[in-house]
Each structure stands twice: as C-alpha cells, then as structure tokens.
Design brief:
Number of strands: 26
Radius of gyration: 22 Å
Distance between the termini: 56 Å
Structural class: alpha+beta
Shape: globular
Number of helices: 10
Low-confidence stretches: none
Mean pLDDT: 97
Largest sheet: 8 strands, mixed
Length: 419
Amino acid sequence: MSWVQVPEGSHFSLQNLPYGIFTTATNPRPRIGVAIGNEVLDVSVIASKFFSGDLVKVFQESTLNGFMGLGRAAWTEARTTLTRLLSQDECALRDDDVMRGACLIPQADVTMQLPARIGDYTDFYSSREHATNVGTMFRGPENALMPNWLHLPVGYHGRASSVVISGTPIHRPNGQQRPDLDKPPVFGPCKLMDFELEMAFFVGPGNQLGRPISVQTAQDHIFGVVLMNDWSARDIQKWEYVPLGPFLAKNMGTHISPWVVTMDALMPFVIDNPVQVDPTPLPYLRHDDRYSFDVQLEVALTTKDLTTPFTISKTSSKNLYWSMKQQLAHHSVTGCNMNPGDLCGSGTISGKSPDSYGSMLELSWKGTKPISLPNGETRKFLQDGDTVIMTGYCQGPGYRVGFGQVTGTVLPAVDLTTT
C-alpha cells in the first residue's frame, strides 16, 4: 500500500510505477514522472535528494533515453527507491510538506509527451491468430500462414517520425488504391481505415554494430512496454505491399500510450511461452525462460453520435506467438545496432474467438460482417470522427498493473486541391 491514495481499480498501483514524460501549464519543461494513483510524481524534484550517481543526471533529462540506456541495475535501484519512498510506512517524502507539495501533481493537470526520442521503429507480426485470419481472407485457409511465419518473427521497419502520443488526432490518408482489378488504380482518401491493437517495447541498452543481442540476454535490453495503435489503410496497403511490404498504408501515424510499464512490474504476470515445436525455432531464437505475459486488452469505439465508449474487442497479450526476446534477438542477429529508445511493436494481437480480434479487418471479416453499435450505427471500417480507445492491464490480488489508455480520433483526409 502507498501513502498516496490509489483508487480501487486504478491502473497505477504501487506495484506498477510506470515512467512517462510530462509538462504542466506552469512549467513547460518536459520532465520525468512516475504515475501513482491519480497523481504524477515529478522525479526531477526529488532526484538529488533520494538518488545518486548517474540516476541524478538522467532524472533531470527531458526524455527517458538516458535512463533506458543505464541498464537493469539502475532500473532496479530506481524502482526499489521509488517503491520505498511511496510505501505507506515511509515518512521521508510523506512527511516533508514542502517537497511533497512540489513533486506530486494531479494527472488531470499534466500534459503527457512522447516518453523517448524514438530513433527507429520496427513492427512485427507476432500473433498467430491474426496472421492466420488475414492469410485466410486473402489466400484461403490452406495457405493462411506464409512458409516463413513459424520459423522467424516477421517484421518491417516503420516510420519513427510519425509515432505520436495518445490523444493526437490522425488524418485519414490519401493514396493510391485499386478497388477494381480490371481498371487502373485511383487516387483519393483511404476508404478502409483500420486500427491495429498492439503492444510495443522500448529498447534499453543497445549493442555495437556487428554484435548481435543474444536471445539469452535479450531481457537485459528491454526496458518496458506501452500500448500501441498502429493505424492501417487497408486499401492502400493491398495495392502497394507487393513486393516490399507496408509503406504509405502505415506511415501516417502510430499511437502509443504515455506511460511505460517496466518489465519488473510485469514479471509477476509472466506465463508459459507458447509451444514452438512444429517447427522448433533455430537455436538463436530458442529460450527456456518464461517471457510471455497475460495483459488483458480491450478496444472501444466512440463516434460522432455515440459518445459512450462501446467495447468491440477483448483479448490478451498471451496470444502472441513470438516473444519480445525472440523479436529483439532476430532483429539484431545480422549485427543491426539497436539504441536506447528504439521502439518494437508486437503486431496486431488477436485471439481465437471473433470478439477477440484486434482489427476492424478481422472484426468485420473484410467488411462482410458489419459491427453493430448500440445506437443503431454499423461499422465495417472506421469513419471520420470515430475515436478508438485501447486499454490494458494485468490483474493482481487487490491491485492492477495497467497502461492507462491510448486514444486517437480519425479526422477527414486533407483536401489536396486546396494545398
């Protein structure tokens, strides 16, 4: 328990203590905060009094990159200190009226920023159920998974510059589509706008160019996890993706949640890894230690006329076939150099049942099964004015370790005739 009030059901318990970057109206300088209940602990205020060495320096920075780069020993030291300071029987901060007043700020009074300078962003394709669903739609059940899928974590390099924080509106993209295969392509606003329910991890310490990260030590390079909505323009993607994969269909925006939940906070919720025996991965991808997690995930939707969020999907991160350790080991096996703050997405997370699918493409089964909303509206894909709300948490005995929300509203496409 904490001396800071933590409401029942709060995502931000003492067992969580996620990191983020925030500003306030009275202080526009970005700084590091930790979420506890409905409050934000401004770590920059307390750094010099309660921390030492490199932690004092990195906790004065405007992003988490420096802290991410310090590595596991520093992360553990910081978490241990913060847990002690916020525990109900610890008086050092609790009874210091001046410092407590300076360092605790209501979450309602802060504006969250991107937690790190994201130098590179990679998106994987790691949910077997999602890959099977999409493959079935476009190639039939007998060829649902491509021959490589069970042998390696499929991925592509995304656009880091368009990764944005939760709440940032996103314009429907313009682009080429070819709805009629008997006619030439056309240009205009995307008609099949979609979300993708994902999680993503931030890289901590990197590796030298030419020196891969081993799957046995990959956990020492994984700082923490956020929720992700990797928007997708399905009609643009269908026309452009052969032979090199996603491009303009994915680069218009990727939303992440503002609070980075550390791996230490998630480890109590570790579960057995998926069985990988047919085929067994190559040796560089094998790890026996458990590194899969049961994060309960939900997607809700509001529209211009439906202001109460309506849940359209519930699933879990346990539906990921490839682990974060495998993703990172595969990413770097060529000697690719990773850096602190690099972001790696899981790919769309879908379960086995239709109500656990992680995209509109699956939920409406390529538009053949419209989703009914409580006010009588239906959706095959997203319309302008729709807001997608994703949440996720792990449930412990009397507490939650959660991610808060990642939200985004679809704005109309930019009118190129006026620009």
